[in-house]
Amino acid sequence: MAAGYLEILRARHAARLLTGTLVGRLPNATAAIAMVLFVRAEGGTYSLAGGLAAVYGVANAVGQPVLGRLVDLYGQPRVQLPAAVLSALAMAGFAFCGIEPLALAYACVAAAGLFTPPLEGGLRALWPSVLRREEQVHRAYAMDAVAQEVMFTVGPLLVTLCVSLWSERAALLVLNAVGVLGALSVAVAPPARAWRSAPREAHWLGALRSPGLLAMLGAFLFVGIALGSITVASVSYADGHGGDAVYGWLMAGIGLGALVGGLAYGARQWAGEPARRLQVLVGFLAVCYLPLTLMPGAVAMTLLAVLAGVFLAPVIACAFVLVDRHAPVGTVTEAFSWLVTTFTVGASVGTGLAGPVVERGGALWGFAVPGAAGGVSLLVLLVTGRVLSAPVGRAVVASSSENDPNRAAEPRFSSGDRA
User: Fold this and answer.
1) What is the largest CA-CA distance in the chain?
2) Contact 255, 238 (CB under 8 A)
3) Which InterPro entries match (predicted)?
4) d(CA 86, CA 246)
5) CATH tag, 2-411
6) What is the pTM of this model?
7) Contact yes or no for 328/201 (Cβ under 8 A)
8) Which long-range contacts (CB under 8 A, 24 or more apart) does 399-402 make?
9) 62-74: pLDDT as tens digits
10) Can you tell me the distance from the alpha carbon of 230 to that of 251, in angstroms, rounded to the nearest whole number?
11) Where are the domains of the chain?
């Protein structure tokens, strides 16, 4: 499997695009954690922290598909870099104004979320232009999911490192500045500059006219709720078991578990229907959240956090294949951005929901939310299984190369049965 990953990374521009995307997404990946710690440092409540994180997430949910559609229409450089700069400036405004006046704080986090660049969807739109074989693209999806977990493992530790070295405010500023550099690296890369989307049918719903994509979004809303609720519940648990350092280790543990799970998932090619495979993976994900309610000591709890993350990356990697399968022609960036949006909305809802739950019932009830949300996600997949398994017409994606920037589009790879 390592050889397969190395083959992908040796492809021209692949490592740069992957690294730049991960670095560019660091502000978004750490936003909830950084904001929760910042609000607490400013004297705010859990409910306020959850509310601000929820506003950021909702604004992000609105911005991602809109910016994704603009990428499909106008290309990546014209959208990604300006959006990254605007988002970073808005978060800097929040860092300097604090939680008072409250209206300004909400406006800043809303703007930061709204202008978060759709780097994740953009990368998945670029893979077919960088990797020419179908099995390489599918393996890149798995590698993409694994690499994200490296970011989610390192991200919380970077936040706590910045806090320990400087302050909660510095964590917000530094991570967003680094994010702009990542977006810049992607935006000026030759594949991003050459990429053009396939001609798309004019339709106000865009990618949302696909029933299969809608089914995926419904399921991933609850996966996001599960992950978002853990963020707030873990803060409450850490307050009684060692403070911010324990919180960082719990979040890193979830990322580490997903990293291990993703590596194991990508170690083989999977036969069978991906829609059915996703049902199984989400079922295991929900079950692995339940032991968190035991709330043992910090070391054991970190190990349970690792277990809770094991099936996250496999779920995401399998979902990429299904989104690629069901995205209408010319909407590939928008379709992947909708998945990001739905996951972000779910995480924000989970964060906002867990705040009052923790304040009323403590961390125990906060950790009960993820298991319940995972169960609902599985139910959605079971109900919509026929839609997700139904054959769809092959779409077209842009695959312009730097050597032929005027090439129109190439056939999209079949989503097949391998992730």
Assistant:
1) 60
2) no
3) MFS, MFS_trans_sf
4) 33
5) 1.20.1250.20
6) 0.73
7) yes
8) 399/128, 399/129, 399/195, 400/129, 400/194, 400/195, 400/196, 401/129, 401/191, 401/194, 402/190, 402/191, 402/193, 402/194
9) 898 999 989 988 8
10) 9
11) 2-411
